[in-house]
Prior knowledge:
It is a single chain. By secondary structure, the chain is of the alpha/beta class. It has helices at 24-37, 51-56, 85-93, 111-114, 123-131, 150-162, 182-200, 214-227, 236-239, 241-249, 265-268, 277-288, 306-317, 339-346, 365-381, and strands at residues 13-21, 59-66, 69-77, 102-108, 138-143, 167-170, 205-209, 231-234, 257-259, 274-275, 292-293, 329-330, 351-354. The chain has an 8-stranded parallel beta sheet. Strands 2-3-1-4-10 form a 5-stranded mixed beta sheet. The longest helix is centred in the middle third of the chain and has 19 residues, at 182-200. The chain is elongated. The model has no long low-confidence stretch (mean pLDDT 95).
Amino acid sequence: xxxxxxxxxxxxxxxxxxxxxxxxxxxxxxxxxxxxxxxxxxxxxxxxxxxxxxxxxxxxxxxxxxxxxxxxxxxxxxxxxxxxxxxxxxxxxxxxxxxxxxxxxxxxxxxxxxxxxxxxxxxxxxxxxxxxxxxxxxxxxxxxxxxxxxxxxxxxxxxxxxxxxxxxxxxxxxxxxxxxxxxxxxxxxxxxxxxxxxxxxxxxxxxxxxxxxxxxxxxxxxxxxxxxxxxxxxxxxxxxxxxxxxxxxxxxxxxxxxxxxxxxxxxxxxxxxxxxxxxxxxxxxxxxxxxxxxxxxxxxxxxxxxxxxxxxxxxxxxxxxxxxxxxxxxxxxxxxxxxxxxxxxxxxxxxxxxxxxxxxxxxxxxxxxxxxxxxxxxxxxx
Length: 382
């Protein structure tokens, strides 16, 4: 039996940076509350001397004040982590998420803690190897609108692939609806993309949306692989980041994963609460094992700023122990007019997401895709 009082802590701690609104004095008070809320959650007067105060309780390691807000780095012992996303999120923001004026900015791990997280199986380079594109941004078409039958979606998939796109993904609204059953849709779309690949000599991949209950997700992922899908679309907001992590680690699945932002928007819409976009769309999916992270680009009708997108891209690609870098995305009614801008903003390591707008092109979908790919190739060389 473990004796908690005699347990020898490693001394290794991970750090969470919080944005705290208000005056410096108010922010310091909030930092102290975070230290307590996220660990012992108990009045100071009942905390015994020794291990609980010296090891368990959160510590403010850095504090920097600014106009209207402050940044506080709070550390916690790595022993509080259980090696899963649920416990990580519980420790870094569980009770503090109920307090106004507190936002998670980023997390920092010492290598001993990071070793418990395999991260992306493929990452940017692995995904490039699969599609045979060593440089330039990749481009992904979306199968929509919701309501089309499997045959119509398969025809769209065929046209996207014939037009030279690198990836074709299900829309996140596609599940196992009676008008579009999962197995029929996946089989038809995978077959359609394979047919186009035979004609073009390319290696376009079809990504099947598999979000659901855990057992259902795994069954769907295995079926999708058997049917010829080349990757998966997962919504970790409704399914949980551990569901994404388990799929990424599953050797029987072993497919690249695109993380979708559904249900995660409310975390990032306020500057003084929730979680920073760079954490939700950059660090967290990368830590959980996504190989690319989908989110809307700035100036696309969503409350995501240029600075947010720059920070997300940095979180997706910066050196982070053994974790492979992943693709950031340019999504949100993406058209020809923003290709050059996106290539200049992100560089070569970018995944374009083409939705319904390209289906309206007067030249037809196949020709429009080829024109878009030509524009990407030209813009990426500048």
